Each structure stands twice: as structure tokens, then as C-alpha cells.
Amino acid sequence: MAEGHLPVRLSSFVGREAELAELAGLLGGRRLLTLTGPGGGGKTRLALTLAERLRPSYPGGVWWVGLAELTEPEAVLPAVAEAFALPEATEEAVAGKIADARLLLVIDNCEHLLGPAARLVRRLLRSCPSLTVLATSQEALGNPGESVFRVPPLGEAAVRLFVERAQAASYGFEQTAANAADIASICERLDGVPLAIELAAAWVPALSPAQIADRLDDSLRVLTGGDREAMPRHRTLRGALDWSWRLLDDPERALLAQLAVFPASFTIDGVEAVAELGDADVLQALSRLVNRSLVMVQQGDEVRYRLLQIVRQYAAHQLGEDPGPARRQAQYVLRLVERAARKLGGEEQQEWLDTLTEERRTIRSALRWFIDAGELESAARIAVGVWWAGYLLGRYGEVRSWLEEVLQLPGELPDALRAEALVAVGTLAHLQGDAELAETRLREGFAAYREAGDRTGEAMELNWLGGVAMRQGDYAEARRLGERCLALWRELGDESKVSRALDFQGMRELLAGELDQAGSLAREARARYEHDGDGEGLGWVTMLLGAVAHYRGERLVARTLLTEARRRGEANRQTATLAWSLHLLGAEARRDGELDESDRLLDESLRLHADSGNRWRVASLLEALAATAHARTDVPRAVRLLAHAASIREKLRTPVPAVEAADVSSVLEAARTAVPAEEFRRYWAEGEMLGLDALLGIERKSPAPVTIVESRIEPLGILALGVSEVRRNETVLDAADWGYAKPRELFYYLLDSGPVRKDQIGAELWPDASATSLRNSFHSCLHQLRRTLGRSDWITFRKGRYEFNRSLDHSYDVTDLESAVTSGDLQRAIDLYGGDYLTDLGGSPWIETRRQSLRQLFEDSLFTLASEYAATGRDAEAIALYERAIAHDPLLEPAHRALIQLHLSHGNRAQAVRQYKLLSSLLAEDLNTTPSPQTTALLRP
């Protein structure tokens, strides 16, 4: 047979090396692989490049069939026959041409002829045992045995693609420091979709990258042009989307247009709240949009959906001026926010904080809609509803700005709502050190509460005044006010506020240096939080008790409690808990002489406090950093840091907390005596004049790498086939060891992926994270993973890639299985297969792909060994293996067929007929089909 034919590629292929390697492995073990993804996502180019590379693996050739220009279902078979240069367009002729040849058939652009393409592929695979099919489609074919690979957006290669296409369009174009950020922004805003990036690059002769980026809010108008030889739907972005739109039914079009009101990812509840499809089923329409790659799926504890930005813009154009979906979405968000606000004090707290974090952009969109619509009360209810979550998560500035905007709008709010909004603004301003505005807003709010006859305001006022007294160093007044506040909350019967008042008062006693009283209050608060299931409160009081131990000099207890508080803060995104824990752990590291680690921890704490606008704590962090600088004998840096902290305290009118005062005074006096008075004054003046960023940049050492307290090398025993398990020196690592779910997933991803870049990891584990969010999430997760494994060198970093260190002592059942197959020990491979890969870790795309690959390896081992047994007369053993294959997957027709043949060879026709009837019923029930002609022919007289 000839070598086949492939289209000629007229431009280079950029990136996708990891995907090509993975797909080559998949094709080695599967007979039908379908590349899916949205229009313009690069499926055709990826399939063509993969086919070119795999030519040597297919002696029968690599053959290409393009369906894009076909319009009629009956044209599919003739197109395949034409690719093989057959004069007769029949299935028999095609199957006869292929026969037993080992060849690859690539069928491109199946989505508009899905039914006939799927039927033909299914029949050819049944008739031609050595045939492999690679298909591209916006929707999977839905055939038995099909592996589906969702083509991901381009990662770092997106920038390379833009630059290369821009250079082709404009000779002399270069990526520079000046335009790099704009190019990256273009690629990010276009979601890494290759067609969109190529069309954007085509504008380089006329526009700069910055000008292109500025115009992407109307991508459908801007992104036109491209290759004149390309199909019309690939010359403009709108053309590609028009193609997809025409393939939809009316309910699917209506739903896609209505989903455009979501600015970010959304849940099924959100879909059902927004959608109005008449008598059509919303879930069915959504499922079709997912299958057609127009709605992306994000797997997690809760499945979420999203639209690519270009699809969202297109859908918004289709929606037009209909205000209904946006109103329904805003009303849904209001209900969600108010429900969440009621759940932030109990055991469901973390779940709802996670929900509000996920819905952040959608909440902002709903708030803006209510403001623009003039619905002041609804806007205020959203802003008030999220303020406590903003406090818990350390997002003071954003929520405060929402509240301020609402309070400045014309119109009157109900008294209680206005009072709550004023107190919320005042509290957040107070936390950010904006004392004057805080006092104004808080007093207005407390007055509003009093006018409404609500004593809640009085308790809040006592709490605020106690906080002011604490920051001003008047600890006796802080204690008096705090005790009155606590008594009033008890009188009002608000148990959650009693818990808060206890831990607030415990913090005040801590800062006053009254460690016994602070510990007593914190323990009482902890007992209440444990009873209520308040995760945020537990994290905070754990930190508070760790702080008490730290200042008492109880080193082991302090590290234990502070590490646990840090873990809780990281896992639950509790900014205040995390920032305070890092601060005190940094101080502990300094006491142990670990100065690089001290700087690293203190830097991270400083960043968290600075990002949330808490200048009061920024001053304490600068003083702590000064102590570490002094320990290095870096007197100039220590003095500058102390001076800047002193200037902040002067502006805020707050002294050094009593519990910190001795350490700060000690460093200050030591610095005074270490250098001449004139030098000291110069360094002090520099610290007062420099901005914070400039100050921290002076003579700064490079941040130290993450360090782990190294244990001896303890071998790892790792299981992934079935329920996952990791043993360290025979001790099973449980959920508490892992901290949270993501480190375990990262562990298995690195274990099975080989060397990978951070962007590749992000695309699989955090697909919707921004660059900043990915950096923070990844490094926190990696640090937790290394802590869990006990040694940092289990995960290595070389040449920009992370990798599991296979040189250390470990065993892994997947590696053992693959080695057994390679060495020909198929019985061992079969015995090692304890179940599908990572059945307890959900269905992330990378897990599902690996799961399917290992299933196929297991099935191939079963069939190969069973065939060997049958060929050597060991029929009973062969039958047992085929029955195991059917138990593994009841729809494996080749296993049924082999059993029928074996029964017939022994003259047991009745058993063969029963096997055939079982297969028929399974296929009819699950796939609405019948056994293949090859199987049916076995029982013909």
C-alpha cells in the first residue's frame, strides 16, 4: 500500500511539544483518538503535525480526509474512498483497501457531519483490526473505545506564535522589553487560542502591540484577515464562530447567548437561574454546548463552566440588547451573596468563602448592573453582604471601594442597611490605617444603629473603641471597653459575636504583654469555635496561642501552633491568620539563626499586610526585618527599616505594641552604638525619605529558596491503581499530612509527567488562574508537598522544569506495571492493575487521559496473554482472562468475540449463543447498536 498523503503545511508549527509527545503515546495504545476543542483552537494543525511525525510508525501509510467543505451526510464515505483513490465509494471497498494494513487514517473537521462520520469510523475499526483513526472535531464522536483529548490553549508558546506570525507579516518586527507586556496581554486575553493570536499578529504592520491590545474589547471586529488560502471560516474569528453557531439548535443558541452575561466561570445553579429556554431542557442544552467545545468545563470539588473570551464576545453580540439575562444573573448573585453572609460564622464558612472567591468577578458584575440600573438598595445589599468575607480574606480595599461607591449614590437606603454599610466602611478603613475617615464613618454608623433602636451598634462601637485604644497603647482602656463589649454581646445572645469578642480581647491582652490572660481568652474562644465549626476562627486563635507561646519562649510549642495556623491560613486563604503566622515564624527562624529563612517569611508576611492596606502591621514587620538585618550585622539596613517604621507609626499615632517593644528597643540601641552618630542619622534620614519599595530594594539579598527541615531519606511506597496511597517509611500519609487536596494532585502529576514547566503545571492544575494567582497557588502547593514528603529534593527544579526525583528510593505500582509489560511479564502486569488510575482524585483532564492510557495497557495485556494461552491450548486460562476483560469493561466486543470462538472450538454452540446474546443486550442497552458483522458471522450456519 502507498504511504498515504497529507496536506502541505504552508507555515510553521509552534509549541505543543508536550501535547505531541502525549498524543503519540495515546495513539500507541488506542485505536480511536479524537482531538476536540473550540473553533480556531489548533486541532487541525496539531493533528497534521502529529501525523507527519508518526509516518514511520505506520507501514500502511498515513491518510488524510478533510470534511470541512462537505455539506451532505452522504458525502463522508465518498471523501474517504477518494482519499484512497478508490473507484467505488462503498464501505466494503474501503475496508478491502485497508484490510490488515497497519495505517493511520486522519479525519479532520467532523463536527458538522458527526453522525455519518462516527458510524463509518465505527464500522471500519470493527472490520480492519490494524487500523488507527485520529479525528478532529468540536465534539467527540461518541464511539466505543474512543479516547478524547481536549486540545488546551497555548501556554508560553502563545507569545512565540504571535511573534513569529508578526514577523511574517512585518519584516523587522521584534519582541522587546517595551512591547513584551502588551504581547503577553494579547495572548492572555485571547485565552491562548491559536487562530485568534494569528489574526491579532496580522495587524502588526498597521498597529503596535499596545494598540492591538487596546482594541481587543471588540475582538470580533479586529481579528480579521489571515491566510487568503485558508477556508473562509479561518480568515476571520467571526467566521470560525459563525461556523460553530450554525451547528447549534435553537435552544443551544439561546442558552449560549444568555451565558454571555457571566464575566467569569459559573456553576450549574447560575446557568439555571439565568437561562430561559421555553420548553427546552437547560441541562441538555448545556451538555450539548460542552460537547461542542463552546462551553469549557473546570473540574474541582464543584464543576464550573466558562466561556472563552472570544466566544463570550460573540455570544454577547448574539444576545443583543435583551436585558433579561443580566437582570436574572444580578438577582441570582444577590441571593447567593446574602445566603453566603448567613453562613460565614459556622462549619460551612470555608465552603462559602471559597464560593465567594470563585464568584468574585460575577459579584462585581452584578453590583455594577444594579448601580447602572439605579437599584440602590440591591447594590447596597450585595456590598454589605460580602464585606465580612472581604475582611476574613484580607481584601479590605476592594470591598471598601464598593461600599463607598454605594454610599455616595443618590437615594435613600433603609436605616438598618445604611448603618451596616457605614460600619463596614469604617471598620475596613480602620484596618487600613485611615483613622480619620474610619472614625467619621463608624460614628455615623453607630448613630444610625442607635436611631433604629438596635443595640448591635453599641457593641460594635465598644469593640472599635477598644481597638483604637489598643493601637494607641492605652491597654487599660482597651481592656475596659473590651470587657463591656463582651458583656453586651452575651446580653444580646449573639454567640458568634461572643466568640469574636473573646479572641479580639485575647489579641489586645497579647499586645499588652499580658500573656496569661491572652492565653485564657484564646482557649475559651477556641472551644467555642470548635463547637461551632468556625474554621477561620480556629485558624486565628491557633495563631494567637502560638504567639503566646512565642513570647513566653516556648519554642517547640510556638513552632507547632504557628505552623498549624499557617497551614490553615494557606489552605483557607485567611490572609490575617497567614500573615501573623509568617511574621512570628520568621521571628522564630531568626532565634534559630536561620536568617535567610527569617527574611523570606517576614517578606511574605509584609507583602500580605501591605496588599491588604494594614499599615499598622507593616510597621511591625519592618521592625522585625530590622532585627534580622541587625543579626546579620547589616546596621545601615536595620536603621533604615526602623526609621521607616517609626514614620508610619507617627502618621498613624500608634506606638510599638508593648509585647514587641523590648525587641525593637534592643535593636535600636544596638544600632546606635554600632556606628558613629553622624552615620546613624544619615541612615535614619534615608529610611524616612525612601518609599517602601525603594527601601526594601536597597542592598537586598536574593530571596532564599524554600527550605524544608530535612528528614533522613525515607522510602516512598506509592499506589495509584485504584485508590491512591502514599507511604513514607511504611507510614501512610493521610489528609492531615497533605494539608489539602492540591498537593496530592501535584505529586501524582509530577510523578507521571516527567520534567515540566510551571506554565504546563498551571494549565492542568490551575487552568483559570491569572499569572499572579498561579504563582502564589503553585509555590504554596509545592512548599506543602515538599513538607509532606519530608525532603525538598523529592521534587527537583532544573533548567526551568520541575520533576519528581526518581533517583531516591521509592516504589510505584504504575511504573512496575509498565516495566512488566515492557519485559513481557504480562501476568504480573495484569496482577498489578488494582483498578482504574486515581479513582479517588476526581476527573481532571490529565488524570482522565492517563487513566484511559493505563486502561488500554491493561486491556492489551489481557488480550495478548489470552491469545497466547489460546494458541498453546491453554483454553481455560484464556477464557478466564477474556472474562476478566469483560468484567473490566462489559462493552469490549473483541473479548466477547474471542469467547464465542473458544466456545465454538470446543463444540459448545449453546454457550457461544449465550455469550452473543449477552453482548447484544449490552450493546443495545448502552450504545443502541448491534454486534459487528465480524462477530455475527461467527454464528452463521
TrEMBL record:
It comes from the Bacteria. This is Bacterial transcriptional activator domain-containing protein. TPR repeats lie at residues 859-892. InterPro entries: BTAD, HTH_77, P-loop_NTPase, TPR-like_helical_dom_sf, TPR_rpt. Keywords: TPR repeat. It comes from Kribbella sancticallisti. Residues 812-940 form the Bacterial transcriptional activator domain.
